[in-house]
Amino acid sequence: MMVDGFFLGVIATASITSGFFFLKFWRTSGDSFFLAFAASFMIEGFNRTANLLESHPSEGAWWTYWVRLLSFLLILAAILKKNYSRN
Questions:
Q1: Count of domains for the chain
Q2: Which of 78, 65, 72, 80 shows the shortest CA–CA distance to 31?
Q3: What pLDDT, in 10s, does the model give residues 29-80?
Q4: By residue range, what is the domain housing residue 79?
Q5: pTM listed for this prediction
Q6: Helix-strand-coil percent breakdown of the chain, rounded to 5?
Q7: Rg of the chain's alpha carbons, rounded to an integer?
């Protein structure tokens, strides 16, 4: 049980750190692609943190999948916008 919590914490930390990494690139380039990736990683990191703070953490909770779906759709929208927008 403690190992699961440890790994959830590692994944949450890595996700939030990646979010700040992409946020830095968005600030320097102004490209919304990086902003979408930053938001997606931040959402995923806070999702893992919320899951970690539950009394019985479960990766199979229904709300976890909705938050992940939102995060992945945000990445998909960023990719589609980047590929199909006119410059």
A1: 1
A2: 78
A3: 999 999 999 999 999 999 999 888 887 766 677 888 899 999 999 999 999 9
A4: 2-84
A5: 0.85
A6: 85, 0, 15
A7: 15
